[in-house]
Amino acid sequence: MAPSRADRTAQKRWTTDYDTLQRHKLFRDPPSNRTAYPSLAEAIKPHVDSFNSIFAQDGQLHHALNEIGSKAFLDGDPSLADEVSEPARRNRLEVRVKEVFLDKSKVPPGNKLNGNRDILPVECRERHVTYKGRFQGRLAYRVNNGEWKETVREFGFIPIMLRSNRCHLEGLSPKDLVNRREETEELGGYFVVNGIEKLIRMLIVNRRNFPMAIVRPSFENRGATYTKYGMQIRSVRPDQTSQTNVLHYLSDGNVTFRFSWRKNEYLVPVVMVLKALVETNDREIYEGIVGPAGTKGLEGKQFVTDRVELLLRTYQAYNLYNMAQTRAFLGSKFRIVLNIPDDMSDEDAGTDFMRKIVLPHLGCCDVTEANDTDKFRMLLFMIRKLHALVEGECSVDNPDAVSSQEVLLPGSLFGMIIKERIEEWMLSIGASLRDWGRSNRYPSFTSKEFERDFLTKIIRKTNENIGQALDYFLATGNLVSPTGLDLQQVSGYTVVAEKINFYRFISHFRMVHRGSFFAELKTTTVRKLLPESWGFLCPVHTPDGSPCGLLNHLSHKCKVATESADVSSIPQLIAQLGVVGSSAATLDESVVVQLDGRILGFCTPKQAKVIGDTLRYWKVEGSHNVPVELEVGFIPASNGGQYPGVYMFSSPARMIRPVKYLPLDKQDFVGSFEQPFMSIACTEPEIASGDSTHVEYDPTNILSIVANQTPYSDFNQSPRNMYQCLSVDHEVLTFTGWKALSAIQAADHVMTMDLRTGIQQWNAVQATTRLAHGGPLYRLKSGGMDAVCDESHRWHLNTKDRPTTYTAYTTQQMLDSHLVAHSSPSGKNMGQWDRKCGTTTHLNHKIPTVGHNGNAMYLWPDCSWLPRSFVRDEACNLDWCRFIGLVMGDGGINHITNAQGQEYHYIQIHQRAGKPAAMADIEDLLKRLAAKLPGFVINPPCVSGVKQKHTWTVNHRDMYYFFLPMIRGPQAYDPLDDAMCRTYQAPHYQALSRSDNEPILPVPAGWKTGNWWYLRRWIYYSWLYLLARDQARAIIKGIAVADGEWSLSLKARSDTGGSGHGGGGAKRIKLSMDSVQSEQLAVPLINRGVVRVFNSSIPLMHDMSVLGLLADTRVNVGVNHKKGEWMPSIGSNANATGWRISFAFTDSELAVRAPKPEPYDNPRHDGFVYCLTVPNGNFLARRTVQYSDNDKIQEVLDAAQKPFYTGNCQMGKQTMGTPGTALKYRTDNKSYRLQTGQTPVVRPPLYNEYGLDNFPNGTNAVVAVISYTGYDMDDAMILNKSAHERGFGHGTIYKTKKIDLSEENKQNRGRSKQVTHMFGFAPGDQPKAYVRNTLDDDGLAAVGMKVKDGDIIAASHTVSWDAVAGEYVNRDAVTHYHKYKEPEEAFVEEIKLIGNDAGSNEPCQALSIRFRLPRSPVIGDKFASRHGQKGVCSQKWPAINMPFSESGMQPDVIINPHAFPSRMTIGMLIESMAGKSGALHGLAQDSTPFKFKDKEGETAVEYFGHQLKRAGYNYHGNEPMYSGITGEEFAADIYIGVVYYQRLRHMVNDKFQVRTTGPVTPLTGQPIKGRAKGGGIRVGEMERDALLAHGTAFLLQDRLMNCSDYTKAWICKRCGSFLSTQPSVGPYSRRREGGRVRCKRCSRPANSVDARSECWEDRKGERWFGGDDVTLVAVPGVLKYLDVELAAMGVRLKFRVAP
């Protein structure tokens, strides 16, 4: 929550100065009254404050217990309840939990310890136990409304968050914290569970109490009438639990109310909910949705009016006329679901339903009539907004934008689980009551027997240990919940608060996660960085890999509200500002005013802006009791934008941040919802007069705490920001059709190709860029493609020898001949380019133009009239697709109503008698469909016209309506309008055609309907993009049969023998449809050759090009007619152009020869080039049709639309640092410590503000940028051996091992606490000398002792209790030893004896041993600068051989110059200059981002260059240096400076893996994986190539066979099979006969003439002859496994065996 004005006292502002004396003073003498680093405490405040609010007065649990209320149970036998007469009333027991208490952590009452009984967190860490407090509750119960009786119940122990109001560290000063063995700046905010620090991470959830308009295609799968439109609201109760309500818009105009309860979904008509809330009538509901009668604009709301009338009319079927009847109806349906007591009436049960389920944020406890009215008004508003969404008046509310999100606080989630466990425990009392009643013959609740047994037997049998569930939740992060808590995930809620270094530790408290549910989604939409996140989420601080974009970090100034603001005065103020109670019909007249999801009223859009501005002024001013934390979101009216209104929020869990309010020059807190609609200047020079209302305090406020520590981060550029640019006259294939490149938006799904597999994929566009371009353009044109781009555009090209491997080349590289030349088999260079048929293409490289369709067979789920068995049969499915092609090619539809009123719905198929083969094919297809499809009735064909056109008609109503939108075409598209034809874009018309009340364009005078529709037909449905390859080919086959021609490739050798560039190995023969044989037509698919289809519909032409791509064909669109010519296909002089679409079937060929870029003066160039950022690195594009400039004649100049795939745009927390100063009292399983940490010379002011000098993370190193030896290639770095000996990068790892003797008692483990073992030597046992070398007399290792793997570190012996002697005695005189089991040598740092808190005198049963592992840098360890320049130490170079400067300075680190150009980490170069000048002048340099400007006199180079110059050094940071080996001066000056270098925790000693032989996988015989198991490392394809390149081929045999799965196996040399060999059996024994193996496949049954000595028997006793040509070979074991696997699939491998 934002600090109040009283708390904003002026703190000392930290600067970049070293402040050494002040820091030392703070460390040696910590403050006793306040923290020195308030910003650090503020960073973790959301965690601590949210936990405090759980148990606060009127806090979360107080509201939770009120919401739970009391649970009622009835006595008697439940099975006889229906037979009991009305007078025999059952007794009623009510139970409730009045209050709960959580005590601070103390020793148990059984411990008679005198003095301080507090248990501190440090003790729990050292004892490896949970820091927890005693949890109790006051249970009250009564019978038959009698007097309440109370008792206090023990609910177990609950983990306590450190520094919370239940922790002993609450409010302690740094000095007091040190006295309690904590850090001086112990932050808290985490739990100690089993000695491990665990953190509940903050989750991103939907914004509470705000109705969000959503569009989800998955909604359509819920049922036949469901549409993708919905309205969702996450309604949050005062106890922070939530209930999500969803409204679904149905295609018949109805609206359904959906909710989930205990993981089950339920649906209720929304009118039923409305009528159950208040006493209302249809008129009130009608006017609440549409608007009062007589209001302005009502006549234009016909869409809404029709649907509301339908909504009310369909509800009349329920015959429910008032609120009581409706509630009783709902109560009867949901009483079992909600666990309603049997004695409660249906109406009361319905009332309880409305309280718990419907918008509970407006009333969930003691609900009044006013609360129900608020719910009623909010539901009406949601219906109204839903209709606006469907009608297109408003846009979708983006659930992935931070404006639609809030944070689920850790304390809130913790309290929600406690509430749920309490309620589940109360419900379990009912089960216990039933068990008790069953065993005691169901006594009455008023009996003495019940009074006696209720607490002692009934309650005690329930599981009262609520704390156990919380313990499990924190330990595992798994949520075991019967309700799901309205969350989408069940795991991943907690993480270990690792203290690898302080940066990583503090980042845990600032991270927010979208949830593990979203990590499994295939879409990348949820991971996008949206502009709405500015100032709330850090744009750069997100990890690589699977959590990228899902795990974000809060900006360092972003706060999370943890309690509700006082807004009691807001409703009165709103009323004074002119808000009225009812709304007008249109958004132009009235918009809504809401406060925390409650409608306060309505006002005009103009007045809404006044209200927003006035409230903002008052809240910043601090007047009228308007809290400064109030979020005032004013959404202005717009055309199709977000739904307008004034939405105010004061609830917790909101993200808010400080900015300066310009009118008052004071601090204002803005929320994520209101920010997108505000004008906030980034810097003061950017303030626009009359527009800007706010200005940022500092541009760095957008970065997280850790991201702010990177020096000069604004100078670093990502290497992936490469612009790949096409000109404007291109189209891109999206999921809704071809779309102009300039119109593509982020989140549009475009077709891409997986360059590894060649499979087509749909990916969301991540970003779009438009760049001004005045330079040259280049055209790549050939028979296979056509594109216009700039010189930096990137193309993915393959080569002839590697057709599946694509390499990126820019246009400029193609022009500069950087491509790989083609070589002949003899090695002769054949050159680069080949000119033929007027185009120049490359001899070796190709560009992909089509990808393989990876879709599964589409099963037509929307066509319910197609039987499931029909669509699942592949042959039937393809027949249906061919039928679609026939209708779309030259078919039609007709709707006739005869005189008797009977309706006929015809589908017509036409064909001329001159094509007998095509006619026969059509006849066969229709007969097959008639046999398979019910209701598919074929009328005999009628013949008309001179050319004897045959017309088949099929009468089928459902098919008619299936083809209707395709035949009649886009509703607003006029093919006679030249402008529409020139600018046709399918997505535009698909958006328009969704409106039901837009009239279809009438048929012009003189036109036949069929001819008019012929020019407009298209394939509108979205299933077009879901078709499998064979389905697309079947549709093309159908269209081609109707009207098309084929050309088949026939293999025939040419006279030239196939030599030369012509490739004359095949001839192309063009066939008309008349000459195609019937057997060729009978095959369902076309798999070779070229098919040409003719059409006059521009929409269908675009859709057929998509169809061709899905059929794995190269598509080429050409002109067949000009405007005004006779069109035989439609029989008129149409104002249209005929199109010829060619499909070239290329099952394996994905690419065409790459054309040579030629300079091109593009007449359609608009001065810009356009770039898309797509995940796969490419997208499918094509040039748009080029028309004549003459408006009178629509002449097509260039229609060759040829698609092609083109390219697109593309370490601090791992550092070994200082985790803390109280390391002595920590027991982390593994912790790191840097021995020689320093304060950086270059750092921002925030470095001191967060006290990071208390936790140094690296060392200032002199870094030279030079390629000095062969050891610094790539990212490798050379370390000065002298610097290493002085301690550079020295570190230590601490590991803790716990030895628990109670676990040695295997028989009674977990069931008994009896002591069976003790530490020490057994009395009477004489340990050997090697044991006493490491163990002291107490049986424990000596502190400081060096131990290695296998050394003994502790001794113990068995004991039993001797009651006579009163002590534990050993009876076997045997000592048991505990060994050190790590491969690396370590030193025993300390040993802690772990006692218990029971206060008994039992002997010690557990101890904790801490080991210290020194880790000085070795070759292979990883280092990095703060700019991500990470590299491996490749060599420790002697100081005498290191280069040196004129002043004798030697670098500590040498890095390669090539590290900079690829990563563009210019900030590191600036840091080098700054560090160097700071070291020379004794200054701490300020590295705040955005400090310098790109203006003369204000650059970083000038600022630090002058400092270097004044110190007598080179202005640019370069220096002459001399070779340490020869003493000669280098030919070039060397860039050298001071950079803060960090040692990463990735060390070679933790990762090296060595194996000769070892454990193997039983199935394959190959080594298992895993370093800890002694497994092997996978030698992949790249590793194999590297070994071959080094000439070490035999190493492959040694690694991959001899030391892997070396196997000796018998093989038959004749048939080449492993599987047919088997050992022979002797005639008198079943044992193997001397190892003789025969091949059964190559032998034959023996007969009487075969020599007995050459015969053999198998295990069945059958005699065989021959098969002895076998031999023993050494092969990899996995080869035999592969042979068996393939044999199971019917594939036989044959091996040739030769010497």
UniProtKB/TrEMBL annotation:
Domain called RNA polymerase Rpb2: residue spans: 207-407, 495-560, 1575-1642
GO cellular component: DNA-directed RNA polymerase complex; nucleolus
Molecular function GO labels: DNA binding; DNA-directed RNA polymerase activity; ribonucleoside binding; zinc ion binding
EC numbers, comma separated: 2.7.7.6
UniProt keywords, alphabetically: DNA-directed RNA polymerase, Metal-binding, Nucleotidyltransferase, Nucleus, Transcription, Transferase, Zinc, Zinc-finger
InterPro entries: DNA-dir_RNA_pol_su2, DNA-dir_RNAP_su2_dom, DNA-dir_RNAP_su2_hyb_sf, Intein_C, RNA_pol_bsu_CS, RNA_pol_bsu_protrusion, RNA_pol_Rpb2_2, RNA_pol_Rpb2_2_sf
Principal EC category: transferase
Major location category of this protein: nucleus
Pfam family, one: RNA_pol_Rpb2_7
Organism domain of life: Eukaryota
One GO term (biological process): DNA-templated transcription
Record protein name field: DNA-directed RNA polymerase subunit beta
Organism from which the protein derives: Friedmanniomyces simplex
Lineage: Eukaryota, Fungi, Dikarya, Ascomycota, Pezizomycotina
